[in-house]
UniProtKB/TrEMBL annotation:
<dbReference type="Pfam" id="PF05848">
    <property type="entry name" value="CtsR"/>
</dbReference>
<protein>
    <submittedName>
        <fullName>CtsR family transcriptional regulator</fullName>
    </submittedName>
</protein>
<feature type="domain" description="CtsR C-terminal dimerization">
    <location>
        <begin position="77"/>
        <end position="147"/>
    </location>
</feature>
<dbReference type="Pfam" id="PF17727">
    <property type="entry name" value="CtsR_C"/>
</dbReference>
<dbReference type="InterPro" id="IPR040465">
    <property type="entry name" value="CtsR_N"/>
</dbReference>
<dbReference type="InterPro" id="IPR041473">
    <property type="entry name" value="CtsR_C"/>
</dbReference>
<dbReference type="InterPro" id="IPR041902">
    <property type="entry name" value="CtsR_N_sf"/>
</dbReference>
<feature type="domain" description="CtsR N-terminal HTH">
    <location>
        <begin position="3"/>
        <end position="71"/>
    </location>
</feature>
<dbReference type="InterPro" id="IPR041908">
    <property type="entry name" value="CtsR_C_sf"/>
</dbReference>
Length: 158
C-alpha cells in the first residue's frame, strides 16, 4: 500500500505528465488528500527538488500558489555544467540515486547505464578500508567523471 506522500507525488506527477508546469494551492491539495499543509510541503521539499528536475516557485498568502515546473535538461546546452554543479564536491548515495533517476527520465542516460554506474560506484565504496568520511567526496569524483563521458561530449582517455 502506498504512503500518503507517494499518493500526493503520483498525483502531481500525473498533472506534470500533461504539462511542463502546474500551479496548485497548498490548502486545496491538503483538503483533497485530507492532510495537513505541512504534508504537502514535505512532498514538495523531498520529491520535487532541483536534484529531481523541478523548479518550485511559491507565493504565500490567501491567494497564494505553488508553481512546479519540470526543468528539461535535454534542451539546455549547458547541461554538463549543471550536472557538475549539482554533484558538487560531495554527493550522498541518496543524492546520486535522485540524479541518476532524473537523467534517465530526461533521456540523457540509459537505464542500463544508470544501473551500471550505481553498481560500480557503490561496489567501489563498499571497501571497509575506505574511510566513511571520504565516501561522499569520492562518490562525487567517480560520478562526475562517468557522467561527463556518458552524457557529454568529452571522450574517455585511451
Amino acid at each position: 500500500m502506498s504512503s500518503l506522500s507517494d499518493l500526493i507525488e503520483q498525483y502531481l506527477q500525473d498533472l506534470l505528465a500533461k504539462r511542463d508546469s502546474i500551479e496548485i494551492q497548498r490548502r486545496q491539495l491538503a483538503q483533497m488528500f485530507r492532510c495537513a499543509p505541512s504534508q504537502i510541503n514535505y512532498v514538495l521539499e523531498t520529491r520535487f527538488t532541483m536534484d529531481h528536475g523541478y523548479l518550485i516557485v511559491s507565493r504565500r498568502g490567501g491567494g497564494g500558489y505553488i508553481k512546479i515546473t519540470r526543468a528539461n535538461w535535454h534542451e539546455d546546452p549547458d547541461v554538463l555544467e549543471k550536472i557538475k554543479e549539482l554533484i558538487g564536491t560531495e554527493i550522498t548515495q541518496e543524492g546520486m540515486a535522485a540524479l541518476l533517476r532524473r537523467l534517465v527520465r530526461e533521456e540523457l542516460l540509459e537505464e542500463k547505464d544508470s544501473w551500471l554506474l550505481w553498481q560500480v560506484i557503490n561496489k567501489e565504496l563498499e571497501n571497509p578500508v575506505f574511510p566513511e568520511e571520504k565516501k561522499d567526496k569520492h562518490r562525487a569524483i567517480l560520478l562526475r567523471t562517468a557522467l561527463l563521458v556518458l552524457c557529454g561530449r568529452e571522450k574517455p582517455i585511451a
